[in-house]
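Researcher: Structure for this, please.
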Amino acid sequence: HELVVAAEKSADGNIDPAKGAPHNWDEAWAFYHGDSPGDCPFATADKRGKDFGTGSTVNDTVLANMQYGLTHMGEPRLQGVADQTIDVMLIPYIQASIKYALKVDSDIAKGDMDAARIHQAEGWAFYRVIEPILAKADAASAKRIGSIFDLSQSQPSAAGAEIKAILMSNLDAFNVSAEQIGSYD
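Model: Predicted structure, token format:
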């Protein structure tokens, strides 16, 4: 939200550091980075980057975009930088949806339905962030993933490969690439 507001204020010429676009831009970074390790999207991005072999690429990109934005307030390109930053911020949620779907499969294969249920819930929570974007591009696939992660099911289902395939085949909807997602085995 703060990036969107910052881009709008910047386009309107409101670049007052205290109340204009720079203030909102700075708040976007504060909300993303957080003030304590482990409790923010920044930490999640590093965890998923480690899982998927992409390291801190998401956070490095977000930080570079945030720094660029602060020094280019009022320029027409700022909206594009905000959009790109939001797209990159979605990567850990795609990665986490895949990771936890595959963990459900592994848990079921081991006969550990309690762990499968926990991982199903984690997958569902991360998927909820990206679901509306997928639904705009492919409503049937979004609904299918939602039904797999649905916590009202009596038992989780082993469909990690299906979820991974759906998400990886719809990366254009998120404006990201397979290389940016990495791989999780």
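Researcher: Any notable elements?
Model: The chain has two domains: 2-89, 92-181. The chain has a mean pLDDT of 95.
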